[in-house]
Design goal:
The chain is built from 3 helices and 2 strands, in the order H-H-H-E-E. It is an all-alpha fold and 142 residues long. A two-stranded antiparallel sheet has the order 1-2.
């Protein structure tokens, strides 16, 4: 059997396995983070989490299949290992970049939500103070 075909099969098996493992890990841990970002809305957190996982699979598996082809023929065991290490290394880097991109975007959303929560006073004001420090009663319309 041609070693190039063996390299393709091993590359696909490992890449798809890594993609599934990373997606499940990110989904499990990301659900808690999304729940916080979305202010405890569990249903919405689950939906967004599912959409992120589907997008992750589409992008990463699309990249894995596009990156399958090798320019050089694999002639020996050394070439097989070298080809696999380059291909799998690039796949791992893409997985890492996708993960960091997701975390960056979700962290921006989370920070914006925290800032909005801090801007709303915890208790509605009951009156106001004149510049001289003298307290005034709330108006009849308030």
């Amino acid at each position: 059997m041609d070693l190039t075909v063996v390299a393709y099969v091993v590359y696909l098996l490992i890449s798809i396995g890594l993609t599934v493992w990373v997606a499940r890990t990110l989904s499990r841990a990301g659900r808690i983070f999304l729940s916080d970002v979305l202010h405890g809305n569990e249903k919405l957190a689950d939906a967004v989490n599912h959409l992120l996982v589907v997008g992750f699979y589409l992008v990463n598996l699309g990249f894995v299949t596009l990156y399958l082809r090798s320019a050089d023929a694999v002639d020996d065991a050394r070439g097989l290992v070298e080809t696999l290490s380059v291909k799998l290394g690039v796949v791992l880097l893409v997985l890492g970049v996708l993960h960091l991109g997701n975390v960056y975007v979700l962290n921006k959303i989370r920070r914006r939500g925290l800032m909005e929560r801090e801007q709303v006073p915890p208790v509605a004001p009951t009156g106001w103070t004149k510049p001289g420090g003298e307290a005034c009663a709330p108006s009849a319309g308030a």
